[in-house]
Structure formats: structure tokens, C-alpha cells
Sequence to fold (121 residues):
Amino acid sequence: MDKVFIEGLQVDALIGIYDWERRIRQPLVFDIEMAFDNRIPAASDAIGDTLNYKAVSKRIIAYVSQSGFGLVETLAERVAAIILEEFGVRHVRLKLSKPGAVRGARAVGVMIERSAATLQQ
Ligand SMILES: Nc1nc2c(c(=O)[nH]1)N=C([C@H](O)[C@@H](O)CO)CN2
Fold:
């Protein structure tokens, strides 16, 4: 299956379980792969036939900027659900990195894969 991807999308957010984390915003980085049949926009050369990575990116930035979860797991799950439900994507692979959260590590975080068929109601 073809993919449309968004790599290294950085968004500042309120995220974390510790008191000091509830008083600041921290950078988060999203790497996202979305299954999509790119033969259709390739044939028409029309942006309306694409899975528009700019539209998806803007939606993620808007959502993450106003979010305030404790765990990266929760945020990753919500962003994956938005991609599946609002953009008609059948399968998404999402990596959410929290750079600098652990001394000595470049980044920590989670990787998830979700399908529209198995999305929890
Ligand atoms: N699996 C997770 N482990 C940890 C998380 C998390 O969201 N998921 N969060 C923290 C703290 O908020 C940490 O990022 C602060 O440095 C610790 N472990």
C-alpha cells in the first residue's frame, strides 16, 4: 500500500506527569505514515484527490497545541484517531517523540499503529 508521510512535525505542548511539567510547554515531534492509494491523485494531478499532508499537519498542530495530557500514550492515541476518523485513512503508523525528557537520551516516546477497522468506539 502507498503511504503519505509527515516527518519531524514539531509542536509545543503541555505534556507530562510531574508538577514542573504542568507549568511549561515542551517540544514534541511526530513522525507519521498514512496508508493511501496515491495512484488516484497521480492520475488526476488534483490536490483534491490527495491525502493532503498540509491539512493533516495543520489539524495535528491545532489539536496538540491545545491538549494537556499526562502521558504521551494518550496523546498518540488521540492523534491517531483524528487521522483515521477525519481524513478517511485506513491505517496509520505514528511515532511521538519527547526530545530531552530523559537525560542522556536524544528522545523518548511511543510508536503505535492503528487501523480504522479496529478503532475503539
Ligand atoms: N511510557 C511513558 N513513560 C513516561 C512518560 C510517559 O508519558 N509515558 N512520562 C514521563 C514524564 O512525563 C517524563 O517525560 C518527564 O521527564 C515519564 N515516563
Notes: The two ends are 25 Å apart (CA to CA).
